[in-house]
Specification:
The chain has helices at residues 3-10, 27-39, 53-60, 76-84, 103-111, 124-135; strands at 19-23, 43-47, 64-67, 94-98, 116-119. The chain has 136 residues and is an alpha/beta fold. Helix 4 links the parallel strand 3 (64-67) and strand 4 (94-98). The protein is globular, with a radius of gyration of 14 Å.
Length: 136
């Protein structure tokens, strides 16, 4: 077991019941990420499209969002822009998990309020570590 994974395992109990909203349109990716987060003790709600994003935010009240940028109904950039216009959600940490690998894509997301940016395929250990750091 790597030292990084061991550290994550040690912190396992610290993050139980932390709420994470996952927005990912790819069924396999969504199920994998959801299962992985649940394994680490997170309470996960997932969406395959953004149509119910804000109603889900209000109801579920996540402490962190994992967001894909390419969605079937609205792109993640637009969601980030709309979040910036809502005072209740400006400080909510958003981690981007996207296939968009260009520096311009990363910079645009960060400029719109994302706190981290991961390019698919994502290293799950690094992702969990980033989530833990953002929720600390």
């Amino acid at each position: 077991m790597t030292a990084k994974l061991f550290k994550i395992e040690q912190q396992f109990q610290l993050h139980q019941s932390k709420r994470v909203l996952l927005i990912e349109d790819n069924d396999v990716n969504r199920m994998l990420l959801c299962d992985y987060l649940i394994y680490y003790g997170y309470d996960v709600q997932s969406l395959s499209e953004a149509s119910t994003f804000f109603s889900t935010l209000k109801q579920f009240q996540p402490e962190l969002i994992l967001l894909d940028l390419k969605l079937p109904d609205i792109d993640g950039y637009t969601l980030l822009e709309k979040m910036q216009n809502k005072p209740d959600y400006v400080k909510l940490p958003v981690i981007i998990v996207s296939a968009f690998a260009f520096k311009a894509d990363r910079q645009r997301a960060i400029d719109l309020g994302a706190c981290r940016y991961f390019v698919k395929p994502v290293n799950l250990i690094d992702l969990i570590q980033a989530i833990q750091e953002e929720l600390a």
